[in-house]
Amino acid sequence: MSRIAESKVNLNVDYSIDIVDLCKKFKRSTLKKGSYTTLKTSLLNWFFKREKETISYTQAISNFTARIPRGASLGIIGRNGSGKSTLLKLISGIYKGDSGKIAINGRIAALIELGAGFHPDFTGRENLYLGGIMHGLTRAQIDERFDAIVKFAELEHVIDDPVRTYSSGMYMRLGFSLAIHTDPDILIIDEVLAVGDAAFVSKCKDRISHLRNTGKTLLLVSHDLSAVEQWCDEVIWIDAGKEMDRGSPRRVIDKYRAWVEKADQKRLMSEPQAEVVVNHPVPEKLAKGRWGSREIEITSIKILDKDLKEQNLFHSGDKFILQLDYLVNEPQEDVVFGMGINRADGIVVLGTNTDIAEIAVPALNGANLTGRGSVRFVIDNLILNEGTFFLDAAVHKKDGYPFDYHQAALKFLARSSYPHVGVVVFPHEWQFLPEKKVARAAHD
Amino acid sequence: MINAMKQIYQFRALLWALVTRHLAIRYRGSVLGFFWSLLNPLLLMLVYSLVFKYYVRLQGVEHYSVFMFTGLLPWLWLTSSLNESTSSIVGSGHLVTKSMFPAQILPLVPVVTNCINLLLSLPVLFVFMWFSGVAFHWTLLLLPILILVQFLTLQGIGVLLGSLNVFYRDIQHILGNALTFVFFLCPILYTPETVPPQFKFSLDYNPLAQFTMGYHDLILDGAIPSLFSICFMIGFMILSLIIGYWVYGKKHETLSELL
Questions:
Q1: Which pLDDT tens digit goes with each residue over A310-325?
Q2: A57 shares contact with chain B (CB less than 8 Å)
Q3: Are B245 and B155 in contact (CB under 8 A)?
Q4: Which CATH superfamily is domain A287-415 in?
Q5: Number of folded domains in chain B?
Q6: Does domain A2-107+184-261 have CATH number 3.40.190.10?
Q7: Within an 8 Å CB–CB cutoff, is residue B4 touching chain A?
Q8: The whole model's pTM is what?
């Protein structure tokens, strides 16, 4: 009720959504599990007025202002937990802000969870009626749109079966189709484009494009940055409830990407390398290990970038330098240095050594290898695709006798500018040759 | 509170859809379906009649089974409504947190549903009375008023308990026990006359006992409840509505954050 009263305040009628200085904080204690105020504690507090409860607040949204003109589309991006969904819930009226104003002009369809409120024991038909009423349609309106909804969801053959017999994709399709047929003025989409198979997704996208073209307002929250870029006129990037930047999608998304990468890198740097923790079972060759008789020792392993700075995030095409510092305890003959790169799932990307490559270890090949020194393995153009990789390094004898062997000593990340599939991205280009005129077959 | 009433009116289609859903869920998949809502109180009455008519042998009650059934039906409405209302908002958390949904509709659904159940089992009671040779009185025509008063009372308590239960989930556990306790404080199994004078207050100042006696008056005795009793019931109704919607009004904005 308060919502409807609020939207009459109409800060500005040209805007679909007008948000001014919105703030929302959550009580910490309400977020923590297991700390529900029970009747007992609340009574005790009431009677005995024990020391003041220490309540901390989490600022979920602070001073958020946005105006979305009618027919525009706004994307909201940010990391997990940055406040995107809270914002959507505030806009769609599920939460109430602490201060600030929200004015909404028009009917909202919030695709926050598809098919919320469907009952598994009811048939698709019954659920559509119930769900339609929840979306604010009248029975007559549902009657009128029923066929279109079912047809869009491609569920004609099962519409009279209970929805518990539906696959999760079918369930989502029904929910999506219903939401989109409620004739909204404002469509709020929270990460729900992952519905159904590729064909249905593209159908949904078409439908959303169509809604956009008919002047509906779109508010999109997604980690699918390319979808955001494709659909939105403006993008707001938020983090910890604060607006970090806003503007044209291209610029803001690029800035966001760069920032995420930096954060990734920082995290990797601060992660103690000694404990490479991988959650899934580690393939044996990725278990961290070191063995060997240590006549020659590898004292440090570093990955450097083109400026010889330590680095563990590489873009495909970057220069990659592996530097091994060694210490010779006892002079040896037939010394071989080796290295290996494995992807986190155990795929061997490269394994090589000075012997295979028939490289004589210069001036060290003999008894005169003494003291300390360094070896570099330089890759001019690291063409790895996205992924997490582990590095092995070793020094051993030609016959395989290990002096010092480091397995999975370091971890590094590779990033590529496009989401290719596979391990490597070879430098490549696509070429389109001029079309040839082909004479039509004579017999048609 | 006026806003809340307006909202109920505004969402009446939704309320009705939820009620029919509630009714349909209850008996979907069972062979006897809707007959269970008639069969359940009948079976319960059979057990109670057996125990109190033949085992315990309560003396001095004419048509004991009819007497008991008269008190039992409204009581079943009351207990099932309150039990379901209390957990209604917590149980439908996904609706409140995922869509714009007026939470106050939820506790109302079981009240309506069980009221429909009551209305459908009243004919069974009347048939039963007819078989037992109990006279019908004109005061039966006043029954809808009593039902309305009880309806509004349950609505108030339901909204109150439903909202509070989100914050203090103990309530749903306390309620079950409390209701059992109150059941024996209402003259359903026994007549008010059997209560010793020093305990009479447990009936006189017990609003729920007043309701039970009201049904007895209207259905069996052909009498109109005393002025005191009428004022007491209506006062209790107004009080529960005011408290219920006051609490809901204060709390409803934070409900979705706790679900």
A1: 888 888 888 999 999 8
A2: no
A3: no
A4: abc- transporter (atp binding component) like domain (2.70.50.60)
A5: 1
A6: no
A7: yes
A8: 0.67
